[in-house]
Amino acid sequence: MQKRCRIIYNPTSGREALKNDLVEILNILERAGYETSAFATTPEPNSARNEATRAAEAGFNLIIAAGGDGTINEVVNGIAPLKHRPKLGIIPAGTTNDYARALKIPRDNPIAAAKVIAKGNTVKMDIGKANDKYFVNIAAGGLLSELTYSVPSEFKTLFGYLAYLVKGAELLPRVKPINMHLEYDHGVYDGKASMFFVALTNSVGGFEQIVPDASLDDGKFTLIVVKTSNLLEMMRLITMVLNGGKHISDPNILYVKTSKLVAKPVDEKMMINIDGEYGGDAPMKFQNLKRHIEFFANTKDIPDSAITEIGEEALDEAKKHFVDGVQELDESDNIKLDK
User: Fold this and answer.
1) Does a cis peptide bond (omega within 30 degrees of 0) precede residue 43?
2) Catalytic site residues?
3) Hey, how many other C-beta atoms are within 10 angstroms of the C-beta on 44?
4) 271-318 pLDDT per residue, tens
5) What's the pTM?
6) Peptide bond preceding 45: is omega within 30 degrees of 0, i.e. cis?
7) What is the DSSP letter of 335?
8) Distance set, CA 213 to CA 75, 100, 107, 162, 208 (Å)
9) Which residue, 309, 195, 191, 174, is CA-closest to 204?
């Protein structure tokens, strides 16, 4: 039976370079055995999400989200509620491309990203659920997390991650802690914090050491609560992040693993950021859906500690190599195996 692939691409992501590579991307996937077609998202709300749902229900084996983290989030929200979910691929064309970074997919070469998909190696990834919305990388709350809303989309496109650094330096002196009530697997945090976040990967806002021990498929979020808003302490914590993730044992940080989180405001509004966009206000419940969606990834470059189980294709290949090796041993040494 012919395998089918649907590329859902954002024609305005990044610097609109993706459109120039689309024909070659289609050829790569066709040669990999997929009957491939493409859908360009529109300005209508939930365009990518609705097309992902339609394609999944139509029986497509593979859906590719081509765009930024926002496009990936929409596509995931289109298939995550379904009982039968196709495999997902990523072709980055956005600003920070955190999810592609975590999966070790080339972030500045769409054709190379398509070749990763064509190789067929996959990882069954944990997915987060925040009330009735799904996310793939991070959910956050608190005044510090509102930084993303303050960066104009044009600025993100032109300057990429630099946009967040510039805006962050501008807003940091104005950040103040708020009272939070956070319930997680084995404890409760009641107190002031400038922000909390639950992360699914090691890449948050372009930093790969914020969650230095991240696992992609263990059913656990990494919960980080930043208790301070003091400017000097914040700068020191950022330095510790850049210096190998040493912030995780700092007294101004709560760093724990949890499969769920309930976040409640105490005396003022708390906005929630989901994969870089406004996702509603607390109270909100976060659940980790273990190994919920299978993504194509550059598995050879992902640390062994980040994956508890490998994808089906990689497992089948490992079995084949084992059987071939046993057969070669049998033939060379005339060993008779018990059947």
Assistant:
1) no
2) 277
3) 7
4) 898 987 889 999 999 999 999 999 999 999 998 888 876 545 554 554
5) 0.83
6) no
7) P
8) 27, 18, 22, 25, 10
9) 195
